[in-house]
Structure formats: structure tokens, C-alpha cells
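User: two proteins, same treatment. go.

Assistant:
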Amino acid sequence: MIPRRPASLLLPFVAVPILLALAGCTTLQSISILPTAGSVILTGVGQTAQFSAFGQSQMGNGIPTTANITTSVAWSVSNPSVATINSAGVATAVGVGYTQVLAQSGGQVATSDLTVELPSSTTTTSTPSINVTPSTATETFTGETTQFEATGNLTGTGSSQNLTSQVQWISSNVQVATINASGLATAVGAGTTTIIAQSGGINGTATLTVATNVASATPTLTLIPGASSASFVGETTQFIALGNLSGGTATQNITNNVAWSSSDVSVATVDQNGLATAVSANTTTESTTITAIGTTNTGSLLTATATLSVQPTGGTVGLPVLAVYMTGLGTGTVTSSPQIACGVVGGSCTGSFAKGTVVTLTETPATGSVFGGWSSNCIVASATTCTITMSNNETVGAVFNP
């Protein structure tokens, strides 16, 4: 007779394959959209276009796989006055213009675009052109930035479009100023340079003068928000450093140019991008001081502080909060889609959104002011808009300068 093996001895042999099967998990690595950017032009209100999203995923160290995830991503557009898009990726033309199409899932974002050209806007043909604004600008110290925008039409038909992200940006004298792919110019030294926006042999130009002999103001550094609260362990709060370490009157986002620290790391930590994480699990409210330290152009240190409080364990977990702050010495407005509860932002405004919501902010400077840029945690769709995905509490700074 063959002795029977106790059932308890068989469990390890049964459990091992099950554990191995559960050892890997599929992770979404990237998203792509078809049709690609520049492919879709609609010519009538109500006309539709189908966008499809494809996700590349990988399980552990396995071979990546690609699947159609059109119906499982969050679809949105940057300009709903041009077109809308539903949950199935079907875009519908609303009015003349250009809009960016976004697909978001699992922290991954992909973009395409769509142009609407109605017959009434294409009855005449003009010469293809690019216009750069501002046409002239002056910077007064090394490191100061100016945002340039390109508008026009590369085909000679249809309405004027925002071409900022479609052109190649060039500075004729990089010893005076450099310019990046988004049209943001940075002063390097005294002199004058021509800023060129170029595409397919079509050029638009502007003049940038750097006058470093102009008296500069006292260096400044401030933090937003000045005080914040976390309601559970692991909740994050984005702090943003604004000011001007070189002097001058223009406020800049310097979040990544300062050193960050937390006075009590048992309450919350902060990384070098200004992102604080609550770690306290106490039964009473605890606070820590978040400090940013910057070095001025004379070598002296400049500090700014904010307070982060962590509520007792067991507090209510709410929806992620988006806080938008207007900064700088200029004035303007910021609107959002989806709409922030208090509408037009004036000073600061907050709104709560479900996790994964893609929020698009649009800036409009007042007469006599210029837009100085968004905080670095934005996914910038263009020079005038900021797109951010609500994965946790988010802070966005919009800078307006005189």
C-alpha cells in the first residue's frame, strides 16, 4: 500500500505556482493617439472625427504589449469652443480654431490636435505667415525670461492659429539670450538679439534687448501656499517658490532653483521639487516648517517659509484639491475647464476634482500686463494654457508681470 501524503504537505506545492502567477502586474508604460498631431481638419460645425488611444503595457520584465484603450482613457480638449470630445474618443466640431486633444490614464498623458476651418473662414487665400508677440521686449538682468508666442497660418488658408509649439525657435545671438522649444527666452548678457520663429521657410521675428546696466530691485523669494494642511498619511502638498534671486521686477518660478527642507521630517518630508509628503501618524495635529533657500547673484542666502499641518490619523479623506495662485506685480485672469467652483481666479482660487481629472487652465493678462509663465508642475499645452492631472492635491502658480 502506498501511504497517503497528508493534505497539509501538499499545500506548498499548490501555493508556489499561484504565487508565481501573481508575482507580476501589468503597468501602463505609455499612451499614443491616432490620428497623430496635424492630421485632423474639420470643415463644418457638427462634423466628427474618431480618435483612438493605444496603450503600451508591460508585466514585470516581460515583452511590452500594445492594446486599444480608447474607451478606458479620459478624453478632453484644451479649447471646447473649437470642438468637444466624448468618452469614446469622438470629437465634434463646434467653431473655427485649433484645439489640443488629450487622452489620460494611469498617470500617462498623450496628445494630438484638431483644427476646424469653416467655409466662411476660407473664402480668401492669403500668404502663409508667422507673427511673433511681443514684437519687442527688454530684459534687465541675467536670467530674466520672456515668453514669446507665434501665431499665423502655415498654409495661407483658414483662420489664424497658435503656432508656438509647431515652429522652431532661434535666437540670433545666444550670447545675449537663449530660447527654448516653447518660446521662452532667457537673458544671458547685455546686447540685442533677434528672436526667430521658423517653419518650412516661413519666418516671424521679434527683437529682444538685454540691458543689464539697468538698476535691479532687491532679490525676492516667497512660497505658495503660505500654509497648508494634510488630512492623511501619504497625502502630498505642492509648494512653489516664486520671486527673483537676481533682482529685477519680474516675478519668476524658481521652485527648482532653491534648496528645500522640512523642520520636522517625522511630520512631513519635502523633496527638491517642493513636493511635501505627510508621514505623521500621531493622535494630535502636528506641524512642520517648510523652508526654501535660494542664493542671490551676490552670493547671499535668501529664505522663505511655509507651514504644513498634518491632521490626526483617521481624518476624513476628501477629493484632491487644485489651488491656483495669481502672483507677480501685474494683473490678469485665469479660467479653468472643468470649471473651478469660484469661476474666474482673482488672487487665488481652489476646486476639488476626482482623481485622474485633467484640468486645463487658460491665462489672460490685463491691459498693461504680460504673462510671465506657469509653475513648473504644469504639463504645458501652449504658452497660454496649463494642463494638470489631479492625482493628489496640486498647487499651480500663474505669474503676471507689468
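Protein 2:
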Amino acid sequence: MAAEVLPLAPVKLAAGPSALTPEQKYWRTFSSQLLLPSPHSSPITHISAPTLTTSTLSTPETFAVTSGPRIQLFSSRTRKLLKTISRFDASDTAHSGAIRRDGRVLLAGGDSGAIQAFDTGSRAILKTFREHKLPVWVTQWHPQDLTGLMSASDDGTVRLWDLPGEGSTTTFVGHADYVRCGGFLPGPHGGRLVVSGSYDQTVRLWDARAGGKSVMVFKHAAAVEAVLGMPEGTQLVAAAGNTMSVLDLVAGRPLQLLRNHQKTVTALSLASQGTRVLSGGLDGHVKVFETTGWNVVAGFKYPSPILSMSVISSGATREDKHLAVGMQSGLLSIKTRLSGQAKVQARERQKEMQALIEGKIEEYDRKQGKKRGRGWEKRTRGKDYTGEGADIVISGNDRGKIKNQSKWETALRKGQYEKALDLVLDAKVSD
């Protein structure tokens, strides 16, 4: 007797690695992209948003975009343009527009060497400083003091200012070439330390209590295009050429050298409450680094060289909301992260539109329990929708009844071309 044939038990293999890491999934939620061209296609050189400090309970929901001779203020809630400040000289170019954390004053430098403070409400010029002799590329507000600010210029100097004063309070001298990046160092220092990067291939740390000389110098192999202080105040990131260096201010030495870009790195930004650093470069790439081992965990590709970038956060928890990128071509890209209810609603809208395109909207409505009122299709497709397969209907051009029309004109309008021709010929013969 033959043995009974039994089916083999299926073999369950181990699950393979996920195609996307949780980090990549997170950054893919920045999917709602808005592309805005700048006026006259001017390169977008700077993007900044007010930062939240312990002395402020909320941050104004605006961010500034600097392009050519103007600075545009956008709403971080709606991404719409709110105001444009263009009170610069005809031959001047604006640099580094920065909004104060209370949202009332905007600070900017320019090619003329002037530093101007604007009232964001009336756009009036509140103050002008003219001590710098060459273009001012960096302006930044003090993280604690509402009237304190710093600047850096192509004249090689870094200066501290007090808004009500008539001149700079401190001048730092030491760079031997253009100073194109810098700012106040965050952390427990309370804004006492200032960092700057120069085309003399150095990053310098300044302390007003030490006079006008630098207290620490880091030498690099290329011109320094961007510097970024880490939130704890003991490290900073500097971009020189296509290399990024992580510098330890306590030990006074570099911790990491990151070579993940093919071309010059031009922009740095913090994200995820300081646990991520984003870099943008002339290769059109944005890289996302985790700050423990400094590994790349995600990335984006843009169609033009990147000149500026900022991750704009919102709410009391400072969650990442927008990724704003400015390009050499004059395009401003704003990618918005959909989360919570907004993400659910966007997914449902996409499903509904897909069902409408495929002609399955009634089936979709039954599954969702939706009831559409009478005349829904008519409102959706157009008020005067008529005709089989009609795509576009133009209304509002009715002529009404035409009076005093000859017989041949009547026949012609009705499409009776032979009759119209006969009537015309008969009229000429009779004449």
C-alpha cells in the first residue's frame, strides 16, 4: 500500500531588510513642495527664521528670504508672501536678512557696507550703521538681548553693535580675507562667544571680554563658506570646500572630517531639536547627518546649485515644519512636513481624486459613507457642462436674438450652406 502523500509545510524565511529606514521615512514626509521663483530670477542667498530662546514663549510665524536687492517675508503657516522690503540703493544687493525673535525688526547687510534695521510693520528704516567699508555678508541678532547684534564683512572685521547706539561696541580684528559666515555661539555662554569663518581658510572664536583678538583659531584647507554652532555650545560645524569639519571647542581640535559632497558646501542648518545637521552644496544635494556618529541618514536632490537653506520649526515643541532651500537659479523650494490630521486628510484627498479620475467615485462614496447632494457632478464639472465628451465649456458670451437678419444669413448660421449660396445668387440675379 502506497504511503499517504502529505503537503510540505511552507518554510518561513527571515524578513529581509526594510527598503526604507525610519529616518528616511521621516524625511520623506516633507513631500508637499512649493516652488517659488524670485523676482528677476535673482539667486537666493539667505533664508532665516526667528529662533526660540528661554526668554520667549512663542516665535513669530514668519521667515525671511534674501534675494538680490530685496528681502521677502513669508508666513510659515500658509507659505504665502506677506511683505517685501526693497529699500536698498539701486546698485546695492541685500545680504543675510534676519528677523528678530519678537518679529518686529528685520536686520540686513548689503554690498554698500551699510547695516540697516527695518520695522517689519511699516517697512521703515529704523537704523543705519556705516562703519564697514566693504560688503556686509553676515548680520545676526543676539540670542538673549533684543538690541544686540553682530556683523561680518569683506573688510575682514567682525563687529558687535547695540541698536540704540551710534557705532559698534566691539571690533574683532584677525581675519586676513573676506568674512562670509558667522554668528553667536549658542549654549550656556549667553551670546558672549562669536564664531566666524573666512576666505583666509580659518574659523575663529571671539570673546568680547578678551578684547578684539580671537581666542581660538582652526585652520582649514579651503575657504570657509558656512559655520554652525551646536546647541550645547561645545561643538561647531564648519564647511570648507566640499569638506565639513566637526570642531571640539573644549579640546581645541577637529573630531570628524565629513566628505559627502562633490562640490562646495554652502549652507548648514540644525533640525530635529539639534539632533540632526543638514548640509547643502553646489552639487544640488542636501545631506542629513545624525550628530552621534555623523553618518548620513537621508538626502534630497535639487535641480540647481544650493546657496541657502533653513529648517523652519514651529510650536512649543519646536517640531520641524518646513525645509526651505534657496538655489542659484532663483528658485525657492519649500517642502512642508505633513503630520497628524493633516497627513490623514491629504491621503484621503488623494484617494478621492484618484477615484474621480478612474470613474469610481460612487464606489468610493459608499465605502466612506458619503452622500453628495444633487447637482454634485454638475458643480464639479462646470455649471454649463453640455455635450458628449466635452472638456471645456465657455459661458457668458451669449449674443441673444439677432434682429434684422437676411434670409441667407439665417441659413448660414443654421449650417445650410447650399441654401445660403442659392439665396445670395438669386438676390444678385434679381438685382
